[in-house]
Specification:
The chain is an alpha/beta fold. It contains 11 helices and 8 strands. Strands 1-2-3-4-5-6-7-8 form an 8-stranded parallel barrel, surrounded by 6 helices.
Length: 242
């Protein structure tokens, strides 16, 4: 397959997913990146200690591209309060609300209320078609919103996420043009092609995979040559002899 035959059509918005400040600022300057997301787990991994200070600092640097920050409480009422506070941090802020809390209690009523109150939401940790349908219907007619389906983790379970994502894409486009479907938990560059083919509006991609997107512009022959050249360079630098 030549570069001209690349299956990637550049019709999907690529968001960077992470919590390392330097990486986030680097990604925000990349014209390929249309938005950014993070979550409490990524923040912990990056060593973030002060949630609010970190978010507000990032927002002083990234003022135009959409940014999603997640609530981090189990209490539905506290989620509502946190969402209303996070909303005030910037016009480009989306509030991430998980589809349920850690005890399995649905947040769908909260999602409906917040959306109708004008809070831009990114509903996250979605896995099933049932969750997708109830989320889309709760968001219908509300503020601009994102439905994040964890396609990568669905695939990790041995299930093909494509039928679900295709159906979800059609549902979002039919119900409300302000609802965008997001392919989450990306595992490899080909997931970007899959998400685009499924009709997703957005895909979140870790920075290390974003850097591999350069392969879209190379033929398979060129990639083969580069691989052999790397073997040669590594063998020489290691001083291998027979």
């Amino acid at each position: 397959m030549t570069a001209a035959q690349s299956p990637f059509q550049n019709k999907i918005k690529v968001y960077s997913d992470g919590a390392d400040k330097a990486s986030m600022l680097e990604m925000a300057k990349n014209p390929i990146i249309k938005g950014l997301t993070t979550n409490p787990s990524l923040m912990k991994k990056a060593g973030v200690n002060d949630y609010k200070s970190f978010c507000l600092d990032i927002l002083t640097h990234i003022k135009e591209k959409p940014l999603s920050f997640e609530v981090f409480t189990d209490s539905i009422s506290d989620m509502a309060q946190q969402a209303q506070q996070i909303k005030t941090w910037g016009q480009n802020v989306y509030v991430k609300i998980p589809i349920m809390n850690s005890e399995g209690q649905s947040t769908i009523d909260l999602i409906r209320d917040l959306s109708r109150q004008g809070v831009k939401l990114n509903v996250t940790a979605i896995f099933t078609m049932e969750q997708i349908v109830e989320t889309v219907m709760a968001l219908k007619g509300g503020a601009p919103s994102i439905v994040s389906v964890f396609s990568g983790r669905i695939a990790d379970s041995g299930r093909d996420p494509m039928p679900t994502m295709i159906a979800a894409s059609e549902l979002c486009r039919t119900v409300d043009k302000n609802i965008e479907l997001l392919w989450a938990s990306t595992r490899e560059v080909y997931n970007i092609v899959q998400a685009e083919q499924a009709g997703c509006h957005i895909i979140t991609v870790p920075p290390d995979i974003i850097k591999k997107m350069s392969g879209f512009n190379k033929s398979l022959h060129q990639l083969s040559l580069e691989t052999v050249q790397a073997f040669k360079t590594d063998a020489e630098s290691a001083g291998f002899k027979l």
